[in-house]
Amino acid sequence: MVHVLVTGAAGMLGRKLVETLARGGQLRGREVTRMTLSDMVAPQPPDTLAMPVTSIAGDFSRHGAAETLVAHKPDVIFHLAAVVSGEAEAEMEKGYEINLDGTRRLLDALCAIGGDYCPRVVFASSLAVFGAPLPDPIPDTHHLTPLTSYGTQKAMCELLLADYSRRGLIDGIGIRLPTIVVRPGRPNKAASGFFSGIIREPLNGEEAILPVADDVAHWVASPRAAIGYLMHAASLETDTLGAQRSLTMPGLRITVAQEIETLARIAGPTRTELIRREADPVIARIVAGWPRSFDAARAEALGFQRDPDFETVVRAYMEDAGIGSDSVAAAPTGV
């Protein structure tokens, strides 16, 4: 039996992860039999979740909150809660309070339980821990050189994860997620949000703002691939990681122009006319410092699997969103 704690459970990845676990998920060779779900708003578990669930609303970073989350000694913690990149850059104090201090409080609350308790902690890190100048491609053993507050916060948390694991207080693994494309729902405050927006909005017949040049490239993965990374990380034998507890996840290197070409191929050229180019110097500056290509051989050797190609990524989004190719190509568009 496995008790799972998910922070950030009301977010896109959190919801998809809980849905996956609700479909009879197993972790570390055992059945998931209990969940604790946490977010700023009370996470709503799926109707198919046939197990005890504790849903907690509130800021996990406030004093005393972490102790409540771990009171029933979860076996596996998926730590997804964070202030996203654009917001962390705009509100520096908030970013450090939640992304760094909140993570430290969560780890300390787990350690305070004591005894032989040593839970698996899967930490959602970011490619933002790397910053230019960089080799191409970038190995995940490259030294951390973040150029944003968000990346700095994630890099600090990676070091905490490694140190607490070295001491045997937790069994941690950090996964540096590619930018998740195509994200369902409405745009968020992430600086990378346009990578999804230029696909998602036109498919829905809505205008999308493109704040950067067409030659901007990035490392991306689908939500399905990301859930696969999380599930695999929860069950992986961490003895193989050694002292380097964080891994860069496999992804696809894709340019904005290639995204637009894929959209036109799948949904027709009229959909790409809904993309409006509107330069944003702040986003352009943030994105310019991000890495664009990785050597993820270490993660792939450990069984993490990438998306086969970007067309598969787009079609997976359409399938999950209930969007048919024929209806997209035939539907009138408008702003």
Q: Strand portion, in percent?
A: 15-25%
The helix content is: 25-40%
Query: What fold name goes in the CATH topology slot of the largest domain?
Result: Rossmann fold
CATH class of the largest domain: Alpha Beta
Query: How many helices in DSSP terms?
Result: 13
**Radius of gyration from CA coordinates:** 20 Å
Distance, first to last CA: 51 Å
SS-based class: alpha/beta
Using DSSP, what is the number of strands?
Answer: 15
Whole-number total of structural domains: 2
The dominant shape is: globular
Which sequence of SSEs, written as H and E, runs from N to C?
Answer: EHEEEHEHHEEHEEHEEHEEHHEHEHHH
For the largest beta-sheet, the strand count, sense and barrel status come to:
8 strands, mixed
Mean pLDDT, to the nearest integer, reads 92
Note poorly predicted spans. none
- State the CATH architecture of the largest domain: 3-Layer(aba) Sandwich
CATH superfamily of the largest domain: NAD(P)-binding Rossmann-like Domain
